[in-house]
Amino acid sequence: MRAGRSPAAAALLASALAAALAVSLTAGCTTSREPSGDDGRSASRTASPGGDRPSAATAPVLAVKIDNAPAARPQTGLDAADVVYVEQVEGGLSRLMAVYATRLPKAVGPVRSARESDLELLRQFHQPVLAFSGAQGRLLPLIDRAPLDAVTPSDASGAYVRGADRAAPHNLFLRPNDLLPSAPGAAALTTGFRYGPAPAGGTAAASRTVRFPAARFAFTWSASRAGWLVSTDGAATRTSDGRPLAPATVVVQYVKVRASRFHDFLGNNTPYTETVGSGKAQVLRDGRAYDVNWKRGTATDGTDFTAADGTPVAFARGQVWVVFANASEASSTASTSSAASAPHASRAAQASPDDPLAAHVP
After folding, report:
1. Taking the CB of the first residue and of the last residue of the chain, which one, N or C, has fewer CB atoms within 10 A?
2. Which pLDDT value is given to residue 330?
3. pLDDT at 102 exceeding the cut of 80
4. Each residue of 180-212: pLDDT tens digit?
5. Is 112 exposed, middle or buried (0-12, 13-18, 19+ CB in 10 A)?
6. Which H or E element spans position 7?
7. What pLDDT does 320 receive?
8. Considering only CA atoms, which of 140, 163, 152 is closest in space to residue 77?
9. CA nearest to 118, candidates 91, 136, 105, 103
10. Residue 38, Cβ neighbours under 10 Å: how many?
11. How far apart are CA 226 and CA 360, in angstroms?
């Protein structure tokens, strides 16, 4: 087992994986013919040129699209990610993209479908591996042409398993070591992020809340964990072995979220999150909040975060969460209090196209 897991946690995860393997599905589990698949938006695709998984010499990062619907929690392997991106999807809901470079967990998931915004976001990495359950048919040609290695269960059926404790489509898990021989290392994280001592200034911050139309995230500073305890829709965000997630740095990045060319089968437009450009952001680290500027010149660049005088702002060493908040709704999507009304979360779950009863929604 990887370093950082207690023997008890390792045994628990091994047991869970054994149960998952016992009920794993065969190749092609994301095709539109299966009612338990990713809502019919997945499709078989031609494997990447050459058909081989990346070698250690390529040193790509692994990016995994992770489900964040209530039925998908708690997630597995999220604590091992170097960077977790929080994106808005249909119906104002959220989805996560976890990026792995310094270590690979035994399992990651639940794995869900990709979006057009992911292609721009991933251009900052060299030939990254993107693990996802499928995508809308009209998006698949764009994914095929993108400079990445896209891997669905149709491409690498042995790397994916179905868990027995959840209903599809919230039960698809990836075994990263079946895609990459080893973790590529920190040098593969070409995000532009800088790490080091805290910058001067900032304001004391006990907590920070970010709201999407139908999702809510709160980050509460924990001195004992030297990180920001995460809660989602009012509940603590934990790993599958019960440990709370506490990233060392949280970035609330205000971006343009616009309508894309794509819709889900209910007619909900798929938001496109623009991560190339510039704007405002807030960096949370060491119990303080720093108002900063962000800039990403082209899709192949990382993102620079700077103070008002242009000085680069360093992050605390450890996991980074980047929450893409809609710049046009900045006043209503964020607050300095972690309190929010329970009825709001309830209505979001009821109206959610990602509701566990809607088995055909991405």
Report:
1. N
2. 62
3. yes
4. 999 999 999 999 999 999 999 999 999 999 999
5. buried
6. helix 7-22
7. 98
8. 163
9. 136
10. 31
11. 40
